[in-house]
Design a protein that fits this description.
The chain is α+β, with helices and mostly antiparallel strands. Helices cover about 45% and strands about 25% of the residues. The chain has 2 domains: about 130 residues, Beta-Lactamase, CATH 3.30.450.20; about 200 residues, Heat Shock Protein 90.
């Protein structure tokens, strides 16, 4: 908090120049006084960009009186501690090296902290000289507090979900042992693990969009085939539902490739590529899973769970289409599905 017992020469000069400033910027100042948005004007020709005007909304937001802020450098509100990054943003905004908008953590007169979104704009005179900057503040404190609470709730939900999946996996494995074959138990464990990995990925992104590449890398990593699987495509965001469904599809394709396909032999490879194109109601994704260098692909005698998931899951959950071709060169899977609006 600034010491106001002894006013600096800059403060005294700022107070003395307020009337002149009001006359020079009359309509501008009147508008700033009447708005409910916190605003200040600063002297662009003085070191530190000291305040030459502060409206009532700013004084209410910070808890200071007008005479306590006039002449103070713009950064006097910065919270104590390491605020070098915020100070650099302020300097860049006044220098015109950024968009002039940023967030900063400030300290009120009573010592309490608040977050504000700040927009700094230059004001030039008839000669084109920028002698003043006008800055507006929007209080983000409640928004930040709600975001922190939401982050806490999401972390707790993610933690409990992963624990639940781990419990389901353990119970199922214990139940199936001795009743089903090892291959069935291993397949079930892998599917639960793929679901868990995708939940973890989404949790780290606040259950917002993750990219298709992120999902592919996370699902393929446990198979340990680095260098034998190539991924090619642009950054493509996926919502939670799309990501979970595609993760299960990729897990089944990778499992099949390791057991029966190109990844079952040392020379085999998998190439995954994707692109977007206009569809009926927006964009749609086209993805190609191409295996090569392995044994000739043969259609299974009966359709197992994995293939039912690949061919039916996308159509049922994502309104997509899947075409699987069993070529001598290797299995080819083509996926087409609509993408949600951004």
């Amino acid at each position: 908090m600034p010491n106001i017992a002894v006013k600096s020469p800059e403060q005294k000069a700022a107070e003395a120049g307020v009337d002149g400033f009001r006359q020079d910027r009359g309509p501008f100042v009147v508008a700033a006084e009447r708005t409910r948005m916190a605003m200040v004007f600063t002297d662009a020709d003085a070191p530190g960009n000291p305040l030459v005007f502060a409206n009532d909304a700013f004084l209410k937001l910070t808890g200071y009186a007008c005479e306590e802020v006039l002449g103070q450098p713009f950064a006097f509100l910065l919270s104590r501690g390491d605020n070098r990054m915020e100070a650099q943003r302020i300097e860049a905004a006044f220098a015109g090296e950024s968009g002039g908008h940023f967030e900063m953590r400030d300290r009120r007169k009573d010592g309490s902290l608040f977050w504000a979104a700040v927009v700094i704009s230059p004001v030039d005179d008839p000669t084109g000289h920028i002698g003043t900057h006008v800055s507006s503040f929007v209080d983000l404190t409640d928004h930040k507090r709600e975001a922190e609470q939401l982050r806490f709730l999401l972390d707790e939900m993610n933690h409990r979900t992963l624990n639940t999946l781990a419990t389901v996996r353990a119970i199922a494995v214990q139940t199936l042992r001795g009743v089903a074959g090892d291959e069935v138990v291993e397949a079930f464990e892998g599917r639960i693990q793929a679901l868990s990995e995708t939940h973890g990925l989404l949790g780290r992104h606040n259950w917002d969009a993750v990219t298709l590449r992120d999902v592919l890398e996370r699902i393929l990593e446990p198979f340990g085939q680095a260098g034998r699987v190539s991924l090619q495509g642009s950054i493509l965001p996926l919502g939670p539902k799309d990501a979970l469904t595609l993760a299960m599809v990729f897990h089944e394709l990778a499992s099949n490739a390791v057991r029966h396909g190109s990844l079952s032999v040392p020379a085999g490879e998998v190439a995954v590529s994707w692109r977007t194109e206009p569809g009926k109601d927006g964009e749609r994704m086209l993805l190609r899973w191409q295996e090569s260098g392995g044994p000739p692909a043969e259609a299974p005698r009966r359709q197992g769970f994995g293939m039912r998931l690949i061919e039916g899951g996308l159509a049922r959950d994502l309104d997509g289409e899947v075409h699987v071709a069993y070529d001598r060169a290797g299995l080819v899977c083509r996926i087409a599905m609509p993408l949600p609006a951004a």
